[in-house]
Amino acid sequence: MDWVRGKEIGHGGFSTVHLATPAKTCPSDHPPLMAVKSCDSALSSSLRHERRVLSELGECPRIVRCLGDSLTAERGGEELYNVLLEYAGGGSLADSLKSRGKPLSEPEIRRHTRSILEGLEFVHSKGFVHCDVKLQNILVFPRGGDEEVKIADFGLAKRAGERLAEGGKQGGFEWRGTPMYMAPESVNGNEYEPPSDVWALGCAVVEMATGRPAWGSRAESNAYALMIRIGVGDEIPEIPEGLSEQGKDFLIKCFAKNPKKRWTARMLLKHPFLAVDGALSVEEVARDCGAEFTDPSPRCHFDFQHWVSTQCSRTSWESGSLSPSSETDSDPSFIAEHAASEISSDSSSGIDRIGELASHERPNWEHSEGWATVR
Asked: Which long-range contacts (CB under 8 A, 24 or more apart) does 228-231 make?
């Protein structure tokens, strides 16, 4: 498709973005206005990767549409690689939030979050991970008096399960994405899978609700300190007090430190916070989605009706692990001691596992050589 480059409307770490219009020779079914991402052809691996990912994903109403690509000869003999995209007249959601100068209302947060999740669920179902979900990569499309949002910028996307390149990186890691949106498993283990997109979505929801980054404004100034906060301990981003109880529970499901216990995009789409009609309870959603972690959290000291001790359950007796073989074995004091020894054994194995991960050497955060640049 022939097109004409217009004024610059943005730029990133790998490319610049201009307005573009179809040439007069193009068929009338092309949109009257497009966005074109361009970079030097010799440095276009990231942009070409984005084009391939969008091509493999195919059409989705919650993802910015790709309209083709081309090579152009610019002034001075420079050759540019270009990717033509659907134009978002409202800019990014980050721009929209900044221009209004206040957080979004809860109905707006619900609507935008549902749209982003629908896009993420589609991306994950196709076997991809976005790896850079943030408000700057959520574009706004005005629709009459309303707004629609779509996911953009797939330059860092990867196949789910695909190992990242480790050559030449400090400690064998290649950090990618934006630090304030990174998940604990990405910081600790170089792991970028669908759950890491869900964590980033939670950070985006916090930002929509507060108008500030999920980890606070000061997090921008010291990325290394932020990585320690994300990766070490039980701290999660602060849950906004102004959100409804459903909204707070939604964020807790996004911020499970263990990615295996974090809710998936498909599960979150059925969460009561986003449900329009016939909302299910949180426990019903978990069962409906086939989740393994269906037991609700206890709400008081005695609310453990779904919890069964593996040390003294009926199954343990029948399997022989605690079956009384003599009068001595059936004595309550013997059973208590036996159970206590099993608990102690489990605890020591946990300590051993932590010991394997611990190190007496302090990390050298001052040495920057080998760190990957993130944006």
From this structure: 230/182, 230/183, 230/184, 230/187, 231/184, 231/187, 231/188
Domain ranges of the chain: 3-86, 93-288
Element (H, E) at 67: strand 66-73
Q: Using CA atoms, how far apart are residues 375 and 13, in angstroms rounded to an integer?
A: 7
Angle at 296 between CA 295 and CA 300, to 5 degrees: 125
Predicted confidence (pLDDT) per residue in 114-158, tens digit: 999 999 999 999 999 999 999 999 999 998 878 899 999 999 999
- Answer for the pair 156, 170: CB distance below 8 angstroms, yes or no: no
Question: Tell me, which fold does domain 93-288 have in CATH?
Answer: Transferase(Phosphotransferase); domain 1 (1.10.510)
User: Which among 70, 97, 75 is positioned nearest to 3, based on CA atoms?
Assistant: 70
Residue 132 appears among annotated catalytic residues: yes
Q: Tens digits of per-residue pLDDT, 10-67? A: 887 778 999 999 887 666 566 789 999 999 999 999 999 999 999 999 999 999 999 9
Q: Which of 29, 69, 132, 303 is catalytic?
A: 132
H or E segment and range at residue 194: helix 194-210
* Per-state percent for the chain, helix, strand, coil, to nearest 5: 40, 15, 45
Supply the DSSP symbol for 132: -
Annotated binding-site residue? 37:
yes
In single-letter form, the type of residue at position 162 comes to E
